[in-house]
Amino acid sequence: MEFFLFFIFLAISIALTGVLSYYSDLLFFSAKENYHRDEITKPWESALQSVVSLFESGGNLAIGASLFLFFSLFAWFWSLLGGIIGSPHYTSSFGNYFFHAPLLFFGFLFGFPFFKEGFGQVGFGKIIADNGRPVLSGLGLGTLAANLSIWGLYHEFFFLFVLITGILILWPLLSYWNDRKFFSISVGPEPRHTEDWGNSDYDEFEDYGNDFADTEESPPAKSSPKTNQNTDWDDFDGGLGDDAPSLDDFEDPK
Description:
By secondary structure, this protein is mainly α. The protein is about 60% helix and about 0% strand. The chain has helices at about 1-30, 35-40, 45-55, 60-80, 80-85, 95-100, 105-120, 125-130, 130-155, 160-175, 200-215. α1 (about 1-30) packs across α3 (about 45-55), α1 crosses α10 and α3 (about 45-55) packs across α4.
């Protein structure tokens, strides 16, 4: 029963991570000002695409999905070790909390750069390095599903522990499922989105400030006032003399 419940919560965890990764990209990473209604109310297609992209991140869908499933089961078996050294694995004891904590997840996350440099060039190590995101997701979501199944079946764990574990696991995964780095750590292929903090908008603002300062230092030259010029009536054909015509000149003779 517990094994069956583990797979149910694993599927729920995958779906939840896919939906949250979609909304995190929509609201935070992309940060658009206007949204269509379908973008808010219909996340399932994009969430499914996120899951497929995760499995394909190493270049092969079958290998990525297999590694995800294998390391998910590995995380579940790891959580059972608490029952070997003490009370049953589902009880609220220090040993069980230790083996249900996401130690494998964070160990792989922060150790991945060293693993990739030392063992990720050839053979099986290269397969793991190329499929780092499915492996990391399997360790994380497998741990989360194991905690949820234990809590849901026996209710002896503190739910706060399960909740904090879920937040700690989902936080990095939302970045990796959106092809981004987490605290400058890249897992799997290089992310497509990189934040360039070198040429920021501040430099552009500074350029505008310099242009404005130059404008204030060198004000435009004032134009000289226009002078009234007398009209030279001799310029007209036939010439009108120096005096301008008056109304009397145009009166009809009686």
